[in-house]
Each structure stands twice: as C-alpha cells, then as structure tokens.
Amino acid sequence: METTVISGFLLILLAGGCSGTFALPFKHNSQWKWENNWFIWSIIALLVAPWIMAFISIPDLESVYAHESNTVLLVAFFGLLWGIGAILFGKGIDYLGVSLSLPIMQGLINVVGTLMPVILRNPSELLTPTGLKLLTGTVIILAGIIFFAIAGHNRDSKSRQTHSETPIKKNFRKGLIICLLAGIFGPMINFAFVYGAPLQEKAVATGASSLYAANVIWSIALSAGFIINLLECIRLFGKNQSWKTYRHRTTGGLIMASLAGVLWYLSIMFYGMGGSFMGVLGASVGWATMQSTAIIAGNVAGLASGEWKGATRYAIRMMVIGLVCLIGGVVVIAL
Fold it and tell me: What's the superkingdom here (predicted)?
C-alpha cells in the first residue's frame, strides 16, 4: 500500500472521528432548543468555515468558479439535496428515536454513498476483485449497523421500563419514510465531491495544493445546504418562538454550538483531503471508512458520556458484535 494511500486512510479515520463526535458540545446546551443549536452550527459549519478555508487554500478562487460554472451549478444542486437530507436526518430521529433511526439512515447513507460513485463511474468495476471486496465490506458494515440497531432498541426499551415512562406514540410509517429519504439524500454531499472533480483539477492548475483542492467544492456545496437548513431554522423560530432562547447561557451556548460546527467541518475537510490522497478509491472506500468510523466514534463517545449506563448484557453484547463487524468491514474494504 502506497504511502499516500495510507496517509489518506488515516485522514479519513480522523474525519470519521470528528463526524461521530461533533454533536457532543450540544449536550452542554440543554436550555437551547434544536433550532437554536442548529442555526449556529449551520452558520459555522456550512458557511463561515468552508469559505475561510477556500479563500486561504485556493489561489484565484473566483477564476476557478468562473471557468467551471456548469460544475459549480451541479455541485450546488447536490448541496441543496444534501441540505434536505440533513433536515430529514433530524426529523427521523424525532419520529423513531436514535436507536431505530440512526442505523437505518447511516446504513443507507453508507451503502448509497459507497456504491453509487462506482456504479455511476463504471458498474462493471463491482465484478472486479476490488469491487467484490467493496461489496463484501459493505455487507459486513450493514450487519454491524443491524446489531447496533438491536442493541439500541434493547437499551431504550430497558430504559423506558426502568423509568416507568410511556413511550411517545409516533407515526412509524411516516418516520420510516423520512428515515429512508434521509438515507438517500444524505450521501449527496459525496456526490458533490465526485462530480466536483473538475473544480479540484482547475484549482490545482491555478496553483492550489492537491491536498486542499477539495475546499473549492465544500464552499459551494455546503453553502447550498446552508440555505435549506437556514429556512428550516427560521420556520421553527417562528413556530416555537425560540429566538428568545438565546437569552439563556448566550456566551457558553454560542461557544459550544460553534465548536460543534468546527468539528463537523473538520470532518468533511479531512474527508476531502484523504479522498484526494486515495484517488478514485476516495469516494467509495473513503466514504465507507468515514461513515463506519463515525458510528464507532459516536458509540464510544456515548459509552464515555453514560448513554449506555444501565443497559442489559444483551444490549452490550449486540453493541460489541456490531462494533467488531464495523471494524471488520472497514478492514476488508481498506486492505
């Protein structure tokens, strides 16, 4: 394995770690509603950070966009679709809960984001040894996500029994549809990366380092996604009158929500850097590795913060089996 591929793989592992833990700062903003956190997060993660990094790392940025206007529009289109997916992701959790919704959504995001770039590029690649390895690793990863779903459902059921809580009845069918749509729209950010390749090439041609060339994509894609997230936050501000929430813990809340935004943006920036090192494998192998690492990091963070406190041995066993499958799937894909 070449040094550049190894470096790319390590960067993508780092991206997954940031992606899986970015929401931890939100735990310190218990007085804030979802839209209060998400609004600040969106400004930092989808607007401020991407453009700062684009201006810093891409010489003659305006010229790059001017010469690739059609690509810019395509990347923005996928960014808009991803923005819809980001909102649906949050709604899916609201309808079905974390333990049921996340495995469904992450599973689809992983599969669609991993396999579709290969299928769109050249479907026959799936029948090659590399393609078959990718398929095998994806199946193992999906098995791991299913085990996590079982573990999470058992844990939440036990928690409700222990606290004698009556579970809130939701429309399961509607929630399932939302989760499926979130899983389909979520990987659109990876499609922006794939179809934004001409922007990267132009950026490198104008003097940008290939390591940071993906920043020219994220500034456009994430800004488009910001529009969707902004509109949803404004709608919720009006519906819930939650602008007033910013009166509580203003400084600390802004710091925590901004930190979440920085962590998330680092995840997507590191993914772009790692994908550049890995070449054509970055959009498939890299995506699967990042998403699986994010699930692992998120669950490790959950263990450390006490989310699994009081869980049954069965739930812990299912979680460990899921963890082993995710690691095994990543190893199969990466080797």
Answer: Bacteria
For the chain, how far is it from start to end, CA to CA, in angstroms? 8
Least confident range from 22-31, 156-165, 170-179, 257-266: namely 156-165
CB 274 within 8 A of CB 8: yes
Q: Which SS3 state, helix, strand or coil, does residue 13 take?
A: helix
Report the length, in residues, of the chain: 335
Q: Where are the domains of the chain?
A: 1-334
pTM of the model: 0.80
d(C-alpha 15, C-alpha 9), whole Å: 10
Contact 61, 212 (CB under 8 A): no
Contact 159, 310 (CB under 8 A): yes
Query: For residue 293, how far is the Cα from the chain centroid?
Result: 11
Residues 6+ apart with CB under 8 A from 248: 31, 32
Both structure tokens of 111 = 């599969």
Q: How far is C-alpha 317 from the geometric centre of its chain's CA atoms?
A: 26
Q: Which two tokens stand for residue 304?
A: 């450390």
1: pLDDT strictly greater than 60:
no
